[in-house]
Amino acid sequence: MTKISKRTNQLSASPIRKFLPDVLTNEKRGIKVFKLNVGDPDITPPKEFLQAIKKFKQKNIGYAPSPGIKEHVKAWVKYYSNFNIKLKPENIIPTVGAGEAILMSMIAVADRGDEIIVFEPLYANFIGFAKIAGVKLIPITLDIKNNFALPKTSEIKKKITKKTKAIIIINPNNPTGTNFSNKEIKNLISIAKQKNLFIISDETYREIVFDTKPNSLLKFSQIKDRLIIIDSASKRFSLPGARIGCLVSLNKNISWALLKLAMIRLSAPTIEQYGLIPLLKNSKAYTKKITTEYQKRGEFVFNALSKMPGVICKKPQGAFYIMAKLPVKNAEDFIKFMLTKFNYKKQTVLLTPASEFYVSKNKGINEVRIAYVLKVSELKPAMQVLARGLEGYLKIKK
Amino acid sequence: MTKISKRTNQLSASPIRKFLPDVLTNEKRGIKVFKLNVGDPDITPPKEFLQAIKKFKQKNIGYAPSPGIKEHVKAWVKYYSNFNIKLKPENIIPTVGAGEAILMSMIAVADRGDEIIVFEPLYANFIGFAKIAGVKLIPITLDIKNNFALPKTSEIKKKITKKTKAIIIINPNNPTGTNFSNKEIKNLISIAKQKNLFIISDETYREIVFDTKPNSLLKFSQIKDRLIIIDSASKRFSLPGARIGCLVSLNKNISWALLKLAMIRLSAPTIEQYGLIPLLKNSKAYTKKITTEYQKRGEFVFNALSKMPGVICKKPQGAFYIMAKLPVKNAEDFIKFMLTKFNYKKQTVLLTPASEFYVSKNKGINEVRIAYVLKVSELKPAMQVLARGLEGYLKIKK
Question: Which fold, B6-44+285-397?
Answer without folding.
Answer: Aspartate Aminotransferase, domain 1 (3.90.1150)
